[in-house]
Write a structure and sequence with these properties.
By secondary structure, this protein is of the alpha/beta class. It has one domain: TIM Barrel (Alpha-Beta Barrel), CATH 3.20.20. A seven-stranded parallel β-sheet has the order 3-4-5-8-9-10-11, covered by helices on one side. A hairpin with a 6-residue loop joins strand 1 and strand 2. Helix 1 packs across helix 2 and helix 9 packs across helix 10. The longest helix has 15 residues. It is globular and about 55 Å long.
Length: 287
């Protein structure tokens, strides 16, 4: 099983992570069941869990997912689990808005530290750029958080290649988290993935098997199912294995709200697609 490196931090990680979002938004499981999902993922080998202060129902519930992960880490008796959280999105009345003003990012980071119960956040990511705030100002806040030790590594999410380049002039960037799946292949066309590969930045594809409510497209795809049937895999495992095969920078973070889903995703790390599989998949999903 190939390990993936977190950016230039030289941290070797299990090549599949877990996205915590489904455990905290509409339709979320009960808290005890959510903890079981997280513990099952850790037991299966997953070492990176991605979250955000905005993974919650609304602004009265901010930090819900971070608190779940903190509790699961307290209960976990195995090895280290790296937590990547994000700041800048807010949930007024359940809506999604962006506030990447430096003052908000400083306050959000402090709240995430409390919710996670840690003194330093492993990986703190700008959830999204804010068109009302100069991008450099938002990154300056993250650089300041890193300088004072509240943040160990800085990452970006929902950004362009030009924004990554600008961010790198302000502070080291360990990761970029953009939407990417067999059905959403913009990362190849917009230069983001190529830039990550060239600069030793880990690329964290979110919604890698379709995202919340979109998994049916993966489950029903004829080519994913054909490859899966040949080897006894699930179509979701094939989608994740294809992403891993496409770039050494990839570390997909599929979400899960059930133990079975978390286990299935972790199993993709042990799959090696053969040349015929890759030819068939590449033809179905040209990049």
């Amino acid at each position: 099983m190939e390990r993936r490196i977190l950016g230039t931090a030289d941290i070797a990680l299990f090549p599949i992570g877990l996205g915590g979002m489904p455990l905290s938004i509409q339709g979320r499981p009960k808290e005890a069941d959510a903890i079981r999902v997280l513990l099952a993922a850790f037991e299966a080998g997953i070492e990176l869990v991605d979250t955000a202060d905005a993974y919650c129902l609304d602004d009265r519930d901010t930090g819900h997912n971070e608190r779940l992960i903190a509790e699961a880490r307290r209960q976990w008796r195995g090895g280290d689990v790296l937590v990547a959280t994000k700041g800048a999105c807010q949930r007024p009345g359940g809506a999604w808005t962006v506030n990447a003003h430096p003052d908000h990012l400083h306050a959000a980071c402090d709240a995430s530290l409390r919710a996670l119960g840690v003194e330093t956040i492993d990986l703190y990511q700008l959830h999204a750029p804010d068109n009302r705030v100069p991008f450099a100002d938002s990154l300056g806040a993250l650089a300041d958080l890193r300088a004072v030790g509240k943040v160990r590594h800085v990452g970006l999410s929902n950004v362009s290649a030009a924004q990554i380049r600008e961010a790198q002039t302000i502070c080291p960037i360990a990761s970029v988290q953009n939407r990417c799946s067999p059905f959403h292949r913009a990362a190849w066309r917009d230069g983001v993935l190529a830039h990550c590969e060239q600069h030793a930045i880990t690329f964290l594809p979110y919604a890698p098997v379709g995202g919340h409510g979109g998994q049916g497209r993966c489950a029903d795809h004829p080519v994913l199912n054909a490859v899966a049937a040949r080897h006894g895999y699930s179509p979701f495992q094939v989608a994740l294995a294809w992403l891993l095969a496409k770039s050494p920078a990839m570390l997909p973070i599929p979400g899960a709200s059930r133990v079975a889903s978390a286990m299935d995703s972790a199993g993709a790390a042990h799959i090696t697609l053969n040349d015929a599989d890759l030819v068939e998949l590449d033809a179905a999903f040209p990049t």
